[in-house]
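User: For a teaching handout, I'd like to show students what a predicted protein-ligand complex looks like in token form. I'll give you the sequence and the SMILES for zinc ion. Please answer with just the structure.
Assistant: Understood, here is the input followed by the structure.
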Amino acid sequence: MEVIALNNSCEYGQPGIFRGHLRFESPRLAGYKWEICEIRGKKPGPRLCICAGIHPNEVSAIEAAVRLQRLFDPENMEGSVSIIPLINQPGLFQYPQYVCPLDGKNIEHTFPGKKDGTFSEALCDAIMNEWCTGADCLIDMHGGDLRENVSKFVMYQHTDDPQHNARGRQIAMCFDAEFVLALPTRFMDKPGTYSPSAFAQNGRLAVLPEAGANGLLTEDTISFFVEGVLNVARTLGIITTPLSEIRNARIHCDDYLWVYCPAGGDFHSAVEPGDRVTKGQRLGTISDLFGETLAELSAPDAGFVLWRITHPSIKEGSFAGAIGIEEN
Ligand SMILES: [Zn+2]
């Protein structure tokens, strides 16, 4: 990767605050550059990478990535913090929901990617193998696209390595979340998957916090991300200020079940993010534009509503929400 410094920046890799742009190696990514801010203490130490804007409408996460750049002081930290506030650069000023406009792929579900693949695939590979090389943890911030309402939750990947699991859980617990979701191991076998799952394939750590609704910038959601990231930096030993207060329950979940609409129509939800549901409980109704019921959606298992789609119109086979299954 290549970095180009702004005028008011320190030299890349030196103690201080680096501000500039990043270009990745793959020819697939030529023509695009990424804003990067990297704050480095005088003492060596852990490296924390933070990104937002894989989904450009998830604006509270992007704003948190901007504010965090001013919250680390090179004089009072060890190691480094590297921040890319907007990953989906082709989506800038396009407001795409979930996808990269160049290839129609959802970058969030494209890890680990591949260097000679499509734009999204090459980008995921570059994030993992160029930018995040040597990182102790990636925090990939999400939540609140235009048509969704999301509870405060954090995902990490469960593996067959108890040490990895304990570390993942510890870092995920740094966020003041309603739910902490350990993704089951089947997520690691998918060809395109979440950053925590792809990082875990190589014994590396990434966590994915989600919060927010409907493309709105809210202080509550911004501070969920900001305080959570600062707590991760404290836990890693990058900074030494006291951990911020946790108010939410951080209920542990160990499975993530999406609920899909069997028929296209208007979805009327009977539940909201955060609600506890029993197995088979009605989640909502799909009706046509005469108001006639076409189908009912029910909970596939007992758990909690992690998020739901807020726009009534949902096409057949598309997702309406997701349930986190409480750990036994
Ligand atoms: Zn997202």
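For the handout, you might add this sentence: Residues 138 and 260 are 30 Å apart (CA to CA).
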